Amino acid sequence: MRHELISLEGDDDLFKHIPGSVYRCLHDKYFTIINANQDFFDLVGFSREEIAARFNNRLIDMIHPFEKEDVVAKMGKSLSDHAKCACNYRILCKDGSYKWILDSCRAIGNAGEYETILGIMVETTEIENTREELELSLDRHRVIMEQTSDILFEWDAKTERILCSSHWKEKFGCEPSIEIGDSCYKLAHIHPDDLLKAQKLSKEIQEGKSYLTTELRIRDKDENYLWCRVRMSNQFDEKGALIKVIGIIQDIDEEKRMIENLRKRAERDALTGLYNRAETQKQIRTYLEQRPDEYSALFMIDTDNFKLVNDSGGHLFGDAVLSEIAAGMKKIVRKSDIVGRIGGDEFTIFVKNITSAAAAEIKAQQLLDIFHHLFENDKRGFEITCSIGISMYPRDGIDFQSLYSCADQALYEAKSRNKNCFVMHEDMARSRFSGINHSSLGAAIDSDMRAPETVPEDLVNYVFQILYDTDDTDEAIQLLLEIVGKRFDVSRAYIFENTEDGKFCDNTYEWCNEGIVPEKEMLQNMSYDALDSYADLFREDPIFYCRDIYKLSSEAQIALFEQQNIRSTLQCAMMEKNHFVGFIGFDECTGNRLWTKEEVGTLSRISQMLSTFLQKKRALERDQRTVNQLRNILDMQDAYIYVIDQSTFKMFYLNQKTKLLDESAKPGMFCYEAFFGRTTPCVNCPVSHEEIEEVYNPKYGVWTKVHVEPFQWEERDAYLISCYDITAYMKK
Q1: Is 75 in contact with 85 (CB distance < 8 Å)?
Q2: What DSSP line would sit under 673-713, residue for residue?
Q3: What pLDDT, on the 0 to 100 scale, is given for residue 156?
Q4: C-alpha–C-alpha distance, residues 118 and 22, integer Å
Q5: 108-155 pLDDT per residue, tens
Q6: Residue 86, Cβ neighbours under 10 Å: how many?
């Protein structure tokens, strides 16, 4: 066959009327080109002469090696059947790149002993690149979806069909279904108590709200209800009609149950199971704010001479007595009534919707009888009595503080009458007891405040020992803030840490005493400049002590403390290399507080220890982030990277691409053992022979260009081996 392209008579006229890159070739094993139009040469960048000289006019040699076999097989079969053939493949261009083309061809006649083929090429590089990117994107999304347990769903408003990802059936064991009623759509699996919430959500969807979220309980195949968080958004057509609703369903059942458990623990007294002091007040206040139109009664109950019980039987026995008293009180009230422990041996009962003051007196007598007879058959045979003060809503007050004050005064009168009795507050007695509060409401509860036996007297040494021994600094710091906070009876103990630039700070740890509202979530990304350079308070002295916040000169700082109901504060600076990096604080919200010199000294030393261990933790976290970032960088490299010992060739590290090449390769193995299946080092190892740069591995059928770099790995001499895959180039 001649090297020159042959121009067949009539081709030039034919090519003029066919758009695109047109060629004519023989149906031989090389698809030898015999003619082509100018668009063809423009497509590949080669001239007629260059194609003849470089490829001997063989189209097959211009096709990418990875696609040659498929093209030959597909064109051979189709053209033999005299059918039209369409092939997608890459063709080599003059600049060394490959272009994707769609080749539509057909046998059209003979040229000597061979059929001739007429083909038209259309470049599809951009389309193929887009397709590849889409496939990669879909693969990434598939991997992400396989790694999450969230459920994707799509509801078609026109067909009223709902489609869910496979995780729905895995979690709930059935197919989702929709019920329709009252112009409202809802899932049939929703808990009955959540139906109103679901109906509201459905209406908001149809009203056009673009983003919605709610929490619902959904039934599984075992008839159990799981808490789920549902997030969704809407799609509308050009006329504003609802087309689809798409969203995500997350399983938050464990989270909700944990929160519910924490909520119960937060509002209940640990010993008796009754409401604690703060929750008792909250429940009563909430009820009274509704301004009920029926009578209610507030009972203040104090156990008489309870100190004798503790002295004679010990604290454990006293705790058992209090538990029995609480159980007895709960038996004579309704579920809707409020029963709480508000002091060491003092209780409150709030009876709703009581018929009259006379009915309250009957209830009070029942309480006296419970105390009197509670332990009469006990082996010890001792007697417990109580004193009770009673106030009535709305006669004695319409808010909690008024009712509490009246009941407290009545309790004082009962105590003065030799105890073991009840007294109803009367209008004429108010002036006599005005402004006097004698109960322990707001005081610490004995069983709550007793220090654990494991806590030594030297609190500073104890704090150090906890921090030194802990494996979980976060947990230890949170525990110590609670211990120190309770020991010094403060309202709130917390830590603020600065951002790297020192311009902002975040509340990272917080403990709150009973009845004190947590502020941590509200105190994030706080600007020092916005608070009149708050950091300057620690410039001269690492201790900032303020007995009365209203004595501060900065209105912004006063406002900050007012928002948190703080009256007094003691804060200790955290320093790192003479730089202010945050502070540890202790607040008092119940009133002004005078801190003693001993308290300031002890809290300062404890703060220094907390600061030291916390900064050590942050430094380790920064180092770990750096290590992780470096590992991520190595894992993202398009090269096989691993680290070996310089003397033994034992591997210390493999990046992700290397692990994917061979899952059996592990750190601790010898590189020649892992990658070449050898028992001794490779003869032509690039580590030993610098002139060797290209290595073929028959185990994987991969050619690599190897780069070796000596460096230190955890104080050991090592090599960093980087292998770049050049298989595609070697095939050429």
Answers
A1: yes
A2: HHHH--SS--TT-TTT-TT--EEEETTTTEEEEEEEEEEEE
A3: 79
A4: 7
A5: 877 677 888 889 998 988 888 777 777 666 666 555 555 556 777 887
A6: 14
Tokens 């928002």 locate to: 563
Lowest mean pLDDT among 93-107, 260-274, 629-643: 260-274
Q: Which residues contact 58 (CB under 8 A, 6 or more apart)?
A: 30, 31, 32, 33
Are the CB atoms for 641 and 622 separated by under 8 Å?
Answer: no
pLDDT at 732: 60
**What single letter denotes the amino acid at residue 215?**
E
Total residue length of the chain: 732
- Residue 203 in tokens: 């209406």
Q: CA torsion, points 542, 546, 549, 552, in degrees to nearest 10?
A: -60
Q: Is there a contact between 404 and 396 (Cβ–Cβ < 8 Å)? A: no
- Phi first, then psi, for residue 534 (nearest 5°) are -55, -35
Structure tokens at 731: 């095939």
Give the torsion through C-alpha atoms of 540, 546, 551, 554, to 10 deg: 60
Q: In what order do the strands lie in the sheet with 151-156?
A: 161-164, 151-156, 242-251, 225-236, 211-219
Q: In whole angstroms, give the CA distance from residue 690 to residue 226.
A: 63
389 and 299 in contact (C-beta within 8 Å)?
Answer: yes
Q: Is the dihedral of CA 720, 726, 727, 731 positive or negative?
A: negative
Q: What is the DSSP letter of 523?
A: S
Residues 666 and 652 sit within 8 Å (Cβ to Cβ):
no
DSSP states along 535-600: GGGGSS-SEEEES-GGG-S-HHHHHHHHHTT--EEEEEEEEETTEEEEEEEEEE-SS-----HHHH
Nearest in space to 722 (alpha carbons), one of 709, 731, 703: 709
Instruction: Give how far the C-alpha of residue 261 lies from the chain's centroid of Cα atoms, to the nearest Å.
Output: 20
3-class SS of residue 303: strand
Distance CA 584, CA 544 (A): 10
Using DSSP's 3-state secondary structure scheme, residue 77 falls into helix
Q: What are phi and psi of 230, to 5 degrees?
A: -115, 125
Residues 6+ apart with CB under 8 A from 17: none
- Answer whether the bond into residue 394 is a cis peptide, omega within 30°: yes
530: pLDDT strictly greater than 80: yes
Cβ-contact 205, 212 below 8 angstroms: yes
pTM, 2 dp: 0.35
Angle in degrees, 0-180, between the axes of helices 400-416 and 277-288, rounded to the nearest 10: 120
pLDDT band (50, 70, 90) for residue 520: very high
Residue the block writes with tokens 């540890």: 584
Rounded distance, CA 123 to CA 100, Å?
6
* Structure tokens that stand for 259 in this block: 């929160």
Residue 436 predicted with pLDDT over 70: no
Phi, psi of 237 (to 5 degrees): -85, 180
Q: Which position has the token pair 């087309």?
A: 243
Pairwise pLDDT comparison (316 vs 293), residue with the higher score = 293
